[in-house]
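User: Hi! I'm a student and our assignment asks us to look at how structure tokens line up with a sequence. Could you show me two examples?

Assistant: Happy to help. In each example below, the sequence comes first and the structure tokens follow. Example one:
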Amino acid sequence: MKQIDLVIIGGGPAGMSAALAAYEQGVTNLLILERDSRLGGILRQCIHNGFGLHRFGEELTGPEYAWRYEEKVLEKKIPYLLDTMVLDISPEKVITATNTSLGVFQIQAKAVILAMGCRERPAGALALAGDRPSGIFSAGTAQKYVNMKSYLPGKNVVILGSGDIGLIMARRMTLEGAKVHAVCELMPYSGGLARNIEQCLNDFGIPLKLSHTVVKIHGKGRLEGVTIAKVDENRRPIPESFEYIPCDTLLLSVGLIPENELSKTAQVELSPITNGATVDQNRQTSTEGIFACGNVLHVHDLVDYVSEEAEIAGNAAAAYLRGALQSNLHIPLSTDGKIRYTVPQTITEEKEITVYFRVSDIFRNATVKVLDGDRVIYSRKKQKVAPGEMESILLKPVQFAGAKALKFTLEVE
């Protein structure tokens, strides 16, 4: 069994950024395992711009952003295996993988970074009434067909879900000559970035129907249309609002799920809110020596934040291998419901910590507070917070010194 100090599972922006950070910290015996035929992850099919504004101070397309990291991986000769599927990770960090050249093989790692990304929620999870004709795609699959295969999935389109990929595909399908009749969103707010609503829908006159869903699929061999309806406050369709829209294509943008099957085999504790691992500020999971970053940890809205988080994991994994990773505290973080979750979920070290969080609804004139019991250790007013935009705050050691637990709350005027 081959012995490797650090193995990174996933060669997307998170995996490459984590590998580069660890390499810069002196870890040279490392390996990236990637199941696709190229490094770059999902960014290879994201040909629109808007990436890299925070990280590089310029607008890049997805492939350009990925190449910035791939180029450094190649330059530093960081080893990687492509077309390699990881089958299992044990709590002892034994990795079982397979590819066509090596067959099934095992690696004993001293540390592991999980960077497997996420997948789209499928149509089967929605229990839509009607048959299962062709013409129903996840938004990401349609994006791959259009941007990488040069196939147009259809000409008359309805999109269910207003996540960022759904909004981006509304624009992309329009630019390719299709007619996007509507983007329907079950919630009373969009799950996407405000800039994507403006640039992908409003600029093209595509209606966004909030508090709407698809209630029936029409068609046998090929999709012929969908019936949509407005929903009430309990998200139940209102019969009087049923509307039939003829279409040959339905794109689903109904959520992303972190790819955590391998995390489960490694006995990593998962959050019921994010479906990703629970981690400390170093992105170390509940299984010692296993770290997580990127969309496998929690779904990010900007890839710039993925790279930033992956650097934290890469630096921490390098410190772990040196025996220099501090863990002298255990302060759990909880939320009040208005704030859905935080990352990290635990503080284990006295140092400056950026805590990322998402809210459960759109709130205006809100105050974010962090409480140590009844003591307010942090307070900041926010004009507006929304589920589609990740928020963050910086906590200093002097603020949480002596705390047993911290609670993140949102007070609305």
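Example two works the same way, sequence first and then tokens:
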Amino acid sequence: MRPFPIIFSFVVMLFGFTPSATAYRLSFASPPPDWSALDAWQGTMSREAFLHRLETVYAPGGASSETIRVEATAAYIRTRASQPHAYYRLAFAEGGGAEVAAKPVIFPGGRLAGSHIVIDPGHIGGDWAELEQRSFRIGDDPPVREGDWVLLVAQRLRHLLEAEGVQVTLVREANEPVTSARPADFFAAAAQQLGRPAPETGEEPKPDIRRRAELLFYRSAEIRARADLIDRLPQPADLILCLHINAAAWPDPENPSLVDEDHLHILVNGAYSREELALDDQRWQMLRRLLRRLDDNERIAARALADAMAEKTGLPPFTYRSPVAVNIDGHPYIWARNLAANRLFDGPVLFLEPWVANSHSAYARLQMGHYEGHRMIDGEPRLSIVEEYAQSVLSGLRRLAAEPPPTPEDAQP
């Protein structure tokens, strides 16, 4: 059993084509984009600001060159991959004074009280952890299930935040799916994606079809169900926190052994690839986030939480060595990635990724469970990982409310 890996985009697998949307190229189960919804941002952003966000956060390395053409007074965005001459024209602001101001700080007034924070405990956990590949164990030790642990953190963090006067919404309250769908509901779609005949009703699907259906269940349907839940909340989220615990690949998958590395990083939305921007829905979703300037608040909030969490946990930063992520503002702990949740969840979204669950140090602490007070670990009194995680996030949010760190105007990822 391999540990839960660093989250990655699974774009090719999630391509979905339906007879009713043959003119569009869409992620699996995504509705066609409504380009007119971008009309509200016509003339609200300068060409320079648009290009800066596009090139340093959302589509670095020329990823948008085939789908977005930037001219002097407007950007021309391809609306359908199947129609290369169909474009949406987005006018730029005329002169610096015409651009709307950046979004205000997340917690105006220097206080958390009265804000609304949504907490998404990552994955599902419980009986679903094996299917999600988010469970592992060494020998006869109790299994480490990421979904179980982050739910404990979410519950503890909710208690701490409510004591500060914050309205808190947990996306899930138990180790059960938010979606009502189940893997079997996706056997036909999985077979279609694989170019195979769909299994008959009651027939056991081939292993590759079953595995593809499971991926569609927890990487697509489950995330979309959570996004729908957030969309239906009566009060919009001021900040959305997606709680995770990281893991590293086994040195030898056939003979699992713990690793030495342990680290922390925080993800904001961005770093869309050329292949992802070839999908009509993801291109639209990226532009909607860019034009709403959500990166301003994500970057500001990420700096506050990264600094506090690094201070409280003592974890060094994780560094990506692949093009799926881009560093933000030169901050060693902050990276942009295009993940389903931080793309679909409505509002500023941070993915928190502290610890490496299958490291020697983190695994030993996880095996201790969630305990009260401190225990001596390597000669130092330490809280449980649940408490340390929750307290470090609270510290970052307090820091953000009291003195939001600036977003450098000239930052180059």
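Here is something you could point out in your write-up. Residues 5-21 have pLDDT under 50 and may be disordered.
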